[in-house]
Amino acid sequence: MAIPRTCIDRAWLRNLLFVRLVARLVSFPAKIDKTMKTSLASLQEWVDQVASHTRAAQVHWCTGDDAENRQLVAQMLESGDLLELNQETHPNCYLHRSDPEDVARVEHLTFVCTPNRDEAGPNNNWMDPKEARALMDGLFAGCMADRTMYVIPYCMGPINSPLSRLGVEITDSPYVVANMRLMTRMGTPALRRIEEEGYFVKGLHSTGELDPDRRYIMHFPTELSIMSFGSGYGGNALLGKKCHALRIASYQARTEGWLAEHMLIVGIENPQGETRYIAGAFPSACGKTNLAMLIPPEAYREAGWKVWTVGDDICWLHPGDDGRLYAVNPEAGFFGVAPGTSQDTNPNALAMLNRDAIFTNVAVTDDNQPWWEGLDDRRPVKDWQGRDFDPKRGAAAHPNSRFTVPISRCPSFSNEAENPKGVPIDAIIFGGRRASLVPLVMEARDWNHGVLMGATMASETTAAATGKVGVVRRDPMAMKPFCGYNFADYWAHWLSFGQRMDRLPKVFQVNWFRRDDDGGFLWPGFTENMRVLEWILKRCKGETEARETPVGRVPAADDINLDGLDEVPDMETLLAVSKDGWTREIADIEKYLEEFSGRLPETLREELEKSRKAL
Ligand code: SAT
Ligand code: MN
What we know:
29 strands; Phosphoenolpyruvate Carboxykinase, domain 2; nine-stranded mixed sheet
């Protein structure tokens, strides 16, 4: 991978080290409360050392309780970090406007600092851990001199689950504290568990000056630590999310024998009252949140089908004693994309957004309600930057504007999300945005072929990360920006489950985004995706046939239940497997896999060869 512009040259590094030295010399000890806040010496030492290095004006250990949150909110209203929304229509809802240059994850500034470059792989930006540490120490020196430093103990996963993992984020952003409180199990109970276990992931964050040229998100997987400087947005700053629960956790999971994945978890209850669980990997902003809280079409609801939400973004998969994979959602909240969320597309999301939510970079109406494109036909008065809305300047809400809300507020929330054992997974689905080629649904021949399907999936880029939108790129398992080590080793880890477990989920690939010649979507999507999930579950139970194609098994056109659809979709085109198209795709996949040659598992090559021969 090309070295990004921001990769330091040595002269700059020397300057930084010099600045750091000077900062050290002139620094005076921060006014730190010297009382021990934890019985865990390693935690107390780290906090004290960070407080002294950043010269934090104050240190606050977060308890996560309501009084603390009320006080933080009051303080942020005063500083302008939060703006009150209409408290009659949206009680306890607030708006945050981020810096206009800080609106999405920054993949080109995100590094995995393993001891050697090969371990991080071509899928990651890499920096030598010593260099990275020196660079970050320089940036953090004195950076909290006029700020409060918050210490956030948190638990990823149910607080009483052996599958959960602990972390502590230190940050100078009260907005991050408020979001972490919604997104994780944060505060005193997490601290008690950290003290019992004795180890935790260390995340150090500062918004710095929000200067895009002094912005880095660094991961040190062997040390279970994260350092993030210069951004206050989403996955760059809420370190429990992508940094811990995916990049660091995926690395940990490899050595411990489990999987940390960018997947939603959803339970489908049939009219007989039996619930089966599906995990689905889709790149950011491809509808995971909508699928996780889907409301079945009317005919299904009348028949007694229900959908239960366990998670919308991250899934930790652990092998159970019975040979099945069990999933927990490490998160406790949603950080969902606002634009496009409406009564039609996701009524469950809308229902939970009228109280206790933080909105980031949405627009507001004349009566101060949050608003975004696709919500309804009201006209906003202020855009996401707080300017009078002028359509000539583009959308009113930023395309990556978000809502943060506790998962328990969701009408379809599943109590199983708190089950310390997790939920058993019957099917794994891989999906992306593909205007052509990829059929609506396709089943893998077996586990190994399923791993190939995941490893070679591609999708059009979205606004969730900075960079060009709409470009097709390979995004294996939707983990391109989130895998904490070399993809070749990661695929080998996935394949290893095939040897170890005898009741693995069936694997499927889906594509809700296939288009016709005029550019229109061929499949209605959203609630109607239930029809595809039903076929998938029937396959898992051996209740329906599938048609063998060279690249996977597809349903016959009339095997997908279309009852009650106003317009009958063109199923032949939606399920078509083009020989020429797939021949080109396989050639492209081969080129892509070349990047990993030397480490690429032979099994993946063999699976690809099977498909090519069959074509
Ligand atoms: O910015 S986040 O990583 O939290 C959201 C996303 O990209 O999925
Ligand atoms: Mn995501």
